[in-house]
Each structure stands twice: as structure tokens, then as C-alpha cells.
Write a structure and sequence with these properties.
Chain lengths: 193, 171
């Protein structure tokens, strides 16, 4: 997928990115693969998740999906991407995943939080739709001080076929800003354990 | 000052609150007194933001003596005026759990629509949510137990520049 010098560069970029280590990998899948995954995901059942922290739609764990393209993608993340991420992030991974499809519609959001939960090491989002700045739906990364989020330091707009990773740390505070138009923010997201 | 119906049924209100742990009293204040409360709540609030806990504007307010609350709880709490606009919220968080007690909420927001967010919720610690109705001139009394805590849902962009206004006192 990447040669050694590319991995070295990606690793440097990952560590240098602020406000906490993260990395964007564009065009993760080829056209045919991403098209199959998109079609498969649209057949999955999304259920409304609503709490103090969030409102969005989510599938069950995609690893239990009966769809071939979804299972192939899970295998790809586990067998190909995870070993690569170990080299990029220098974080030891088990190859196990926790992942689901997420769909944000108009007014949906996920307020600031840190993702810290037993076993989660590297968080990821794989975007299957694009949103512009005026649409909302950005992944917002917070700067932090003394273990508390200070303010939004970086916004990343969803971009089709782009894969984002960030290390789960006590200070990796982030949120998904509200989608403010009638567009859908579709992604596969989860954690490498 | 308050709807005569509630004065005549004070014992029923007391009993319901004791048994259910919460009571919602619609059209609670007389028209004139409700207008006075709205005027008091217009005092300029200060924005407060702690991303993991809350975002809102608030200010301490002096309410006139409310004998109804005295007869129920023997005392009247200090009240604060809260305003929730677009992007405001409160979250449930281990760092911000209130001690057991009683919440007294006066809903001031006229013409507020539920789809804009801003609803007051209580969670009982087992995943069950109770959503309080949104209606101006409503008095809400809720017993907070160790597992029963409050949050106010994120106000979304459909609210535009409107603000959800509440008076909240805690005992």
C-alpha cells in the first residue's frame, strides 16, 4: 500500500499534526471498491441514537453484516490498514475493530468528548460523502490544557473516500459539528483496538 | 399570583410530588405575574462555556416571595435565569452531578418548538429518559435522587436567533 519512505513521512505528519496526533489519507479505496461499499452501506439499517451528547443515525456493528462488500472492508481495515497504522502511529494494535456506519442529517451533531474507553487506541472515520464548510458537519478538534478542552483548534470537512485517524488520548477532545443543511454526512467510523 | 386551581388543590400537588417524584403544573401563574417573571428574567445574562459540561447564558435573579413553594418545601431557593440559543446545551457528566435535592423550573419560552432542541430531560441512571413538556408559564418540580439527573438538549440551527428562557432554582 505504501513503501517505507512514505510510511516514514506519514508517521512524521501524524505526530506533528495539531492539536493532537492525527492524519488524513485521501482516496483510501479505488472507485469500484468504494462504490460497492457505498451501495452496501445504503442497504444497512440505521437507527436513531439520541442522548444529551448526540443525535445521529447508526448501524449495528458492521462486522456482523451479511453483506460481502462490508465484510471485505472490515477485513481490509483489520488485515491491511491496522498493520500500517501500527507503523505510522507507533501504537500497538490487536487487529480487532469496533466499527459502525454513521449517518448525520440536518440538525444532527455529536458534542465534545474524548472517546476514552477501555481498549480504544486509534479512532477512525472513513467518509462516504462530502460536505462544504457552509453545510456544517465538520470534525472539530480541540486544543486542551490541564486535561480540559479549551477551544476548537482545527476543523476537518468530510471529504468522500478520505480516511481520518487520530490517537485516543486523554486530551483528544473532538466533536462533530451540527449539519445545518439538508445533506447527509455518511461515514464508517470506529476504533482500532 | 398563581392559578387559583393550584391553591385549591395544594394537597393533591404535594401528594403527587411525594408519590411520583415530579409534577408539571401548566398555566401556573396569573397572566400579570407571569409577565413580571419574564421581565425579571430579562436581566442581562453572562455566557458560560465549558465544552464537556455546558454552554449557555445565565444570571442570578431575585424573584418575589412565592408562598406556594414555601408551603411545599418550607423555603424558596435562589433562582437563576438561563437562556439557551443556537449551539447551547448541558451534558450529563460525572464531574457535574448535582447532589440529591429538588429542581424547580419555570418555563418562560413562548412559542418555542420542540424540534429546535432545548428540551429539559431527566435520566434515572438506568437509561430511562423523561422529557419535560415545553410550554410557557409551566412550573416543573422534580426530585433529584442520586441516579436522577438533568440535561438540556442541544439547541439546533432551526431555532435561528431565538432563545429558550428558563428560571431554575435548586433545593
Amino acid at each position: 500500500m505504501f513503501d517505507l519512505s512514505q510510511i516514514q513521512k506519514l508517521s512524521e505528519k501524524f505526530q506533528q499534526n495539531q492539536p493532537f496526533p492525527h492524519l488524513l489519507l485521501h482516496d483510501l479505496l479505488d472507485k469500484e471498491e468504494v462504490s460497492s461499499l457505498l451501495k452496501a452501506l445504503q442497504k444497512e439499517e440505521f437507527q436513531l441514537k439520541d442522548s444529551d451528547l448526540f443525535t445521529f443515525l447508526q448501524t449495528d456493528d458492521l462486522q456482523s453484516s451479511s453483506d460481502k462488500a462490508v465484510r471485505k472492508f472490515c477485513q481490509f481495515l483489520s488485515k491491511t490498514v491496522a498493520p500500517l497504522l501500527e507503523k505510522i502511529t507507533s501504537v500497538e494494535l490487536t487487529g480487532k475493530l469496533d466499527l459502525s456506519g454513521t449517518l448525520y442529517k440536518n440538525t444532527h451533531h455529536l458534542l465534545p468528548h474524548d472517546d476514552k474507553l477501555e481498549g480504544r487506541k486509534v479512532a477512525f472515520i472513513y467518509y462516504l460523502s462530502s460536505l462544504e464548510k457552509k453545510d456544517g458537519g465538520a470534525l472539530a478538534l480541540y486544543s486542551a490544557k490541564d486535561g480540559k478542552p479549551l477551544k476548537i483548534a482545527k476543523r476537518i470537512q468530510p471529504q468522500f473516500n478520505t480516511f481520518i485517524i487520530f490517537q485516543v488520548l486523554p486530551e483528544s477532545f473532538h466533536e462533530v459539528e451540527e449539519v445545518i443543511v439538508n445533506k447527509e454526512r455518511l461515514a464508517v467510523s470506529g476504533w482500532f483496538l | 399570583m398563581i392559578n387559583e386551581f393550584y391553591l385549591e388543590n395544594l394537597e393533591t400537588v404535594k401528594r403527587t410530588f411525594q408519590e411520583e417524584g415530579q409534577v408539571v403544573l401548566f398555566d401556573f401563574f396569573t397572566k400579570d405575574f407571569f409577565s413580571l417573571l419574564k421581565k425579571i428574567a430579562e436581566k442581562k445574562p453572562r455566557p458560560e462555556k465549558d465544552p464537556l459540561l455546558h454552554s449557555f447564558s445565565t444570571v442570578s435573579v431575585d424573584l418575589p416571595e412565592l408562598p406556594f413553594l414555601r408551603s411545599l418545601f418550607k423555603k424558596q431557593p435562589d433562582f437563576r435565569s438561563y437562556r439557551f440559543g443556537w449551539k447551547d446545551y448541558t451534558l450529563l457528566h460525572d464531574l457535574d452531578m448535582q447532589k440529591p435535592g429538588i429542581d424547580i423550573i419555570i418555563d418562560l419560552a413562548e412559542d418555542w418548538q420542540e424540534k429546535w432542541g432545548g428540551s429539559v430531560y431527566y435520566v434515572d441512571g438506568t437509561g430511562n429518559f423523561t422529557k419535560m413538556p415545553i410550554k410557557a408559564n409551566t412550573l416543573i418540580l422534580v426530585k433529584r435522587t442520586s441516579g436522577n439527573n438533568r440535561f438540556i438538549k442541544y439547541v439546533n440551527h432551526l431555532a435561528g436567533t431565538r432563545k429558550r428562557s428558563l428560571l431554575i432554582g435548586s433545593l
